[in-house]
Amino acid sequence: ASCSRAVLQQVTRAYVAAQEAGDASVLTALVSPHPNQIYVENNGLADLAGGALAEPLRIDFSRSIHDPDRCAAFTEIIGASDPHPRVIHTRFAVPKASLIESVVTDEGDWLFNATGTLELNAGEVWDEIPKSDRAATAAEVQALGDAYFDRFGNESVVVLWAAEPCYRLEGGLAARGEVRDGECVMAFPSSIVVPYRRYVVDVTLGAASLFVGFPGLDRTQGDAPMPDSHLFRVEHGKIKYIHTASACVVEGCGL
Predict the structure, then answer these.
(1) Residue 38, Cβ neighbours under 10 Å: how many?
(2) DSSP letters for 155-206
(3) The DUF8021 domain covers which part of the protein (predicted)?
């Protein structure tokens, strides 16, 4: 079902305010919740008022994208200066926030470094893309994210990645590739099938959020899919930036 960008923006603004206050009612007061609302935190069902939203967070930066066609939205929150630093990725199924799903990361999660995330993010440009330069459809933006994850299980998949800056912001570190013939080439495994993809795509920002289950991320959990979120920025038909948030069961995902 589709909905207006204004409705989605109301949801993401209310969510950021609620997280900063540590009070889920700030969100539910502005966005009347669905009677069968589902909240999922790090792949587990949780109480919206008792999860991450119950703890205030000093927010240094937030970014939201909005997908009117899916009636869905996504917000990235960086809280590096808080006494309990966190990076949170959250997606919403609207209307009435019927589904809210968060990947909440902090110390001990995969390559977590909120300060590093904040610093790398500061050097990036995620401005609205001029209409003449935008992808024609959301499917074109989504396809770049799908190609990226498909490559983990199939070495023949080509991932179009811009030569600059040629890194993936992974948990707070810059995972850098190699520039060859004007393209960024990243090292990938070729035997991991990444399932359970959930999408939010914003053509105006050239952005796609993919929530997935990443098999084998936590070495103590075998091939169980772990909570993982990737946010992509696409420009001129190529990946420009990627931000990841990945939660572990045990500290350091068993490494």
Answers:
(1) 14
(2) TT----BBSSS-EEEEBTEEEE-EEETTEEE----SS------EEEEEGGGT
(3) 136-245
What type of residue sits at position 241?
A: Y
Q: What domains sit in the chain, N to C, each tagged with a CATH number? A: 5-122 (3.10.450.50), 131-254 (3.10.450.50)
- Taking Cα atoms as reference points, which of 75, 76, 88, 43 lies closest to residue 218? 43
Q: Measured on CA atoms in the order 215, 220, 226, 228, is the torsion positive or negative?
A: negative
From the list 95, 90, 99, the residue with the least C-alpha distance to 71 is 95
What 3-state DSSP class applies to 230? Answer: strand
Total number of residues shown for the chain:
255
Torsion of CA 21, 57, 24, 244, to 10 degrees: 150
